[in-house]
Structures are given as C-alpha cells and as structure tokens.
Design goal:
The protein is mainly beta and about 120 residues long. The protein has no helices and 11 strands. Strands 2, 4, 5, 6, 9, 10 and 11 form a 7-stranded mixed β-sheet that branches. A 4-stranded antiparallel β-sheet has the order 1-3-8-7, with no helix packed on it. About 30% of the residues are buried.
Length: about 120
C-alpha cells in the first residue's frame, strides 16, 4: 500500500502564493509519475500538473506560467509552487502517484491518491 500525505494548503489573498507538498510512503519500488489535480465545488476533478521521474512536466493551460511542479525522487515527494493566485484557483487539491510497489509480493503497479488539501483564494 502507498500512502500520500499532502500539506501546505490554506487561505490566501488574490495575488499571493502557496506551496503544496505531497510525500509518498510505503513499500515503494519506483514512482513513475506524480501529479496534482484539483476539484472546485460543483466541478469535476481536473489535471493541474504532472511530473515524471525523469523530470518531464505537463501543465494545464490554465496554470502555465503561474504554477511550477517539482519533485524530490529521493524523498518520494512532489511539490506545487502556486504564484499569483486567483479566486478561480480555489479548490481541493489532490496529489496522485503512479508506480510499482514491492510488497505484498509479487511487485505490482499502484495508482494512489492523497486525501486532498483545501486552497482558498480570497478576492
């Protein structure tokens, strides 16, 4: 089993910044990709950004140039630096990780989600 624990959400004024963190733990052999998704009230969950173990990134058009995703492979941790926040960025932000676990044997793929962290941007 793989657990993802997010932190860093909160309330910020428009134009402000927040940095989200997500740490993965468990019998992890390798994490191929980590990412952030968000879900605003009344809307579907949407992709924010993803990053592979090699550092390749992908961003939603709505956050390009505003958010930056990064990861520390040694710590199995992914970060999301969010700058120039807008009220429309208000949502619950979820961390996701895909990879392979060693136990229980045999090794098998996993696709895990965090519990979510609330980001609220006031006008």
């Amino acid at each position: 089993q793989v657990q993802l624990v997010e932190s860093g959400g909160g309330l910020v004024q428009a134009g402000g910044s927040l940095r989200l963190s997500c740490a993965a733990s468990g019998s992890i052999f390798v994490i191929y990709a980590m990412g952030w998704y968000r879900q605003a009230p009344g809307k579907q969950r949407e992709l924010v950004a993803t990053i592979t173990s090699g550092g390749s990134t992908n961003y939603a058009d709505s956050v390009k140039g505003q958010f930056t995703i990064s990861r520390d492979n040694a710590k199995n941790t992914v970060y999301l630096q969010m700058n120039s926040l807008k009220p429309e960025d208000t949502a619950v932000y979820y961390c996701n990780a895909e990879g392979t676990v060693l136990r229980p044997t045999p090794p098998k793929p996993f696709d895990s989600w965090g519990q979510g962290t609330q980001v609220t941007v006031s006008a």
